[in-house]
Amino acid sequence: MPKTSSKKDKGSGKKDGDDKKNSGPPTAALFNKVKITPLGKKKDNKNHSSRFRVSQDRELQKLPLLKDAGSGVEREELFLQKLRQCCTIFDFAVDPLSDLKWKEIKRAALNELVDFVTHQRGVITEAIYPEAVHMFARNLFRTLPPPTNPHGAEYDPEEDEPTLEAAWPHLQLVYEFFLRFLESPDFTPSTAKRSIDQQFVIQLLELFDSEDPRERDLLKTTLHRIYGKFLGLRAYIRKQINNIFFQVLYESERHNGIAELLEILGSIINGFALPLKEEHKQFLQRVLLPLHKVKSMSVYHPQLAYCVVQFLEKDSTLTDIVIKGLLKFWPKTHSPKEVMFLNELEEILDVIEPHEFRKIMRPLFQQLARCVSSPHFQVAERALYFWNNDYIMTLISDNADVILPIMFGALYKNSKSHWNKTIHGLIYNALKLFMEMNQGLFDECTVRYKDERQRERAKIKEREEAWTALEQAAIANAEKIKAQLPSGNNQYTTAIDNEDLDGADPETLAETIKALPEKGETGDVEPVEAAVQRDLTRRKSFLPVDFETRRALIQHQQHKVDPST
């Protein structure tokens, strides 16, 4: 990155020796100048903008208007001069009030270029193509700043304020000029492909990670125009978009432009020819379905659901893969995400074919039964709204003999036990519809459900009785063993603590040794039960005492106190 020239740098005449002389530990005044940002405090959006390679020579001269130029070579030369003039980069982040006069000259030139390309014909000559692409790349291709909150909560477009680019007054005009340039009737892709190549596409895709939603929206339109104009770049663009998705899935789990890229892919999928290529089916299975597991899925879920539905409208045989993929990534503990899955599931069922529905109805309605039983009322409510969809009710009616037994238990149980009254009304409505479909099957499911409940109660009662019997047997066995314990063996313990012997005099130790029973004798010792009942706070446990070991320990302690003995 080239250094920007400044008056301070030119006027400073310090030598290397002066730098060494002034080098040393930082002073207190220097520390006071350092601004410390508290942890968790969000940076100011105004200061969090891209850093451009500011041009050294920024003094611009106002050129004549294009409409006043003559036709042919003179107008083309003036057009090229204005394009080169617009390649000058100004500073909007560090010092936004600098070079205001020259910034206005560039803004006026860009406005004139946009208007000229939009309303004039025959102005885009062969010499214009490389200069126009270079001007676009010089102004826009840059290193994006790091994310403002890379590991925090996901971005909420309704509550969070987006980070905006400080240089947007010029960037917007550059985007608009390039779009008019691509959409012009004079534009010929065969001439432009020498400038708009694969490297250009890679740099353009890198800009989709910008945090400014205005830039991402214009990038979306620009990339879509390039995809439509350049047939040779289509496969490469899809491949690079896939690479971005793979990076999100298996590396970073974040990217600001996923929604815009999916929106582009939605229109691309809509134009796929039939039968679908294996490459496109793999894209659905390996990219679109795994994107449902990303934490920030709520940011791009509408576009993702649209892409999935587009695939099913193209090829209904993919229904089994899609439904099983959704069930595989179905959230277990994230209720808002579960509601989004239910929304997408209803969109899929709206376009599903009846013969494909029969293949997946069992696992599908098993999951719906779990959703109906969810304690989160929004999940249960969204699942029960399926019974308000006419086409879904037609599919359920044609397969009621399979679906009703799966759903009946969850519906009947939660009609009485769910805490939310709104859920009760929706469940009663679903049960009423099932009853009207097939009264005989409904009565059969009712009897079967009651029999299952009785068997469950009997099994619970039997389990409780078994545990009660086991507990009583354990108590009786413990009392029997206690009664059979012999008196005066090694299962007794003395009331002597090892800690009490520390620091004792030799006479006390001798008396203690004499008081211990000889080998084979019992002596007056305290039973284990009595020792446990004593309030001894220093002993952590009561173990059977080996009197020979205790005698040896006390003799060793006596010898340590009185070495002469």
β-strand percent reads under 5%
The sequence of SSEs as H and E is HHHHHHHHHHHHHHHHHHHHHHHHHH
Radius of gyration: 41 Å
Quick one: how many beta strands? Answer: 0
* Number of continuous helical runs: 26
The CA-CA distance between the termini, in Å, is 89 Å
State mean pLDDT (0 to 100 scale): 80
Could you list the spans in which at least 5 consecutive residues all have pLDDT below 50?
Answer: 1-47, 488-502, 519-526
What gross morphology would you assign? flat
Structure report:
- The chain has 565 residues and is mostly helical.
- It is 61% helix and 0% strand.
- It has 26 helices and no strands.
- The longest helix is centred in the last third of the chain and has 45 residues, at 439-483.
- The protein starts with 6 loop residues before the first helix and ends with a helix.
- The model is unreliable at 1-47, 488-502 and 519-526 (pLDDT under 50).
